[in-house]
Amino acid sequence: MRATLSVAMIARNEEANLPRTLAAVRWVDEIVVVDSGSVDHTPDIARSFGAKHSFNRDFRGHAAQKNVALDKCTCEWILLLDADEVLSPELAEEIKQTLEDPKFEAYWIPRLNLFLGRWMRHGGVYPDRKLRLFKRGRARVQEGVGPHGTPQYDGPKGTLKHDLMHYAYPTLELYLDHMNAYSSEITEVIVKSGKTSRSLVAFVWNGVLNPIATFIKNYIFRLGFLDGREGFLFHLNHSFYIHWKYAKAWEAVQKTVELPAPAHAEGERQVR
Length: 272
Hints:
By secondary structure, this protein is α/β, with parallel strands linked by helices. The chain folds into two domains: 5-169, Spore Coat Polysaccharide Biosynthesis Protein SpsA, Chain A (Alpha-Beta Complex); 172-255, no CATH class. Helices cover 39% and strands 20% of the residues. Strands 3-2-1-4-9-6-12 form a seven-stranded mixed β-sheet, sandwiched between helices. The chain has a four-stranded mixed β-sheet with strand order 5-13-7-8. Helix 5 (172-185) packs parallel to helix 8, helix 6 (187-193) crosses helix 8 and helix 7 (200-221) packs antiparallel against helix 8 (228-255). It starts with a strand and ends in a 17-residue tail after the last helix.
């Protein structure tokens, strides 16, 4: 007998993605959608698929919000999904078979990412394995590490074979919007880690040389160029994202420093 399965999701204004995602998980026992404040048709769409939709507008980051969703699940197992991720038919069948007789309490799932209409298979982008399937109560999403906190489980893990389809960035505008938001969210984490300072040397190392080195490693040595023009645009703009997050962290550090008052020229009367 197959173990029961909950799908846990967070969402905000996901009416474009949600029907495709939820249609692929109609067969699960429970769908939980925690919404941080949609003003589009996301709530109606979620409920039309039988999902348990609820609002949690006290958004404290993606990781914390995902833990809220995990806590609302009631089945034996949980599949954690983003609103733009879709189970392929092969992956859905593999999950069903796995839950007939699980050998582990948590499983990695390979993820295939879409960028500007092309599935990215090189440059270190694939297989983008994510720990998404686990027994309820065994894993929590790591908080305090920015927008990309992942479920943490200390025991042995299995790995599924079939892909989770991530309809990530159909347009460059959406990608840039997300990277801008993500780089802002991770600023506090970088500052606390001590990886930035007010010195020019530290900024050049983290905010300039690091992005350049990342582009060279992923686009050239990890064969990102095999993904064509889309691969070039992806890795170029990913390098800009790395620059943005360190530039924003540097700016945040600067704001904590009290700037000295401007010096007055000799003989100049100070205006009070």
